[in-house]
Amino acid sequence: MATTTETPAASPYDRIGGHAVLRRITDRFYDLMETEPAFAELRAMHASDLAPMRESLPLFLGGWSGGPRTWWDANPGKCMVSMHAPFRIDKAIAGQWADAMRRAIADVAPEDAAIAEALADVLDRMARGMAKA
Ligand code: HEM
Hints:
Elements: H1 12-16, H2 18-35, H3 40-45, H4 51-64, H5 70-74, H6 80-83, H7 91-108, H8 113-129
């Protein structure tokens, strides 16, 4: 029987450009949140200092997309969904999160446009799925 040697498919993490690109997307996301009136309500929910989130979100997205599990190692037992439970996330706020993230990904324009679009779509669905009302 013939054997095939298939190269394992690159993870979404690798295809998007790894930590460096996720960090650029995150920085653009929080820059938009800090400057665009359309995201003011979302901004107001966050702590005044966004520096910890700028560090943390790319690590979360990295592990979630198949890269290093740094965020989980640093936050054992922490659940992203239950962590958001105390926040009043309605459809409008979830839409602001999804729109800001979609714009951030478009502005950074990762080289692999197909994975960039897939990332924007899945994060859009994830954010809108977190809306409680
Ligand atoms: C649906 C709309 C969302 C809202 C309104 C929201 C809001 C927040 C807020 C207020 C915090 C606390 C940060 C601070 O106080 O500065 C937070 C933390 C966090 N959010 Fe969201 N979030 C949303 C969606 C998401 C999604 C879709 C993801 C992941 C893909 C995500 C990932 C995180 C992570 C990883 C943290 C905490 C980081 C850490 O403690 O290490 N959030 N979020």
